[in-house]
Amino acid sequence: MKIGELSRETGVAVRLLRYYETQGLLTSHRSEGGHRHYGPEAPATVARIRALLAAGLPTRVIRELMPCFAGDGAELQACVLDHLRTQLAELDSRITDLTQARTALGGILEASTRAIATA
């Protein structure tokens, strides 16, 4: 299938499909005319990429995980579960940091609002 067909079938912009390819997440073959052609597994591959991106994984990590899929969905083999647990722990840490930053910013905003109101 051509890139436009893959885009329509998956709902992913052509530009993103090209980006996935440059990141080593998606492969195509070129026709004699230079057009990209994707195999029948491409829509499932794009769905997997989208699922992992939605889970907050960066493309460099997704590239490492691509050979480790088990089945047709986003399920991965047991050998990469520790890697996923590490990614989850990193997300938890970022959430904690963001929550603390939000609390601090809220405090500054509240103090500033009070100061303006009493001035």
CATH topology (level 3) name of the largest domain: Multidrug-efflux Transporter Regulator, Chain: A, Domain 2
- What's the gyration radius in Å? 21 Å
- Shape summary: elongated
Helix-strand topology string: HHEEHHH
Termini gap: 67 Å
Q: Looking across the biggest beta sheet, what order are the strands in?
A: 1-2
The helical percent reads 55-70%
> How many discrete domains?
2
Number of DSSP helical runs: 5
The biggest beta sheet is recorded as: 2 strands, antiparallel
Oligomer: single chain
CATH architecture of the largest domain: Orthogonal Bundle
Q: Structural class, from helix and strand content?
A: mainly alpha
CATH class of the largest domain: Mainly Alpha
Low-confidence stretches: none
> Based on DSSP secondary structure assignment, what is the total number of beta strands?
2
InterPro entries: DNA-bd_dom_put_sf, MerR-type_HTH_dom, MerR_fam
Protein name: MerR family transcriptional regulator
Pfam families: MerR_1
Domain HTH merR-type: 1-68
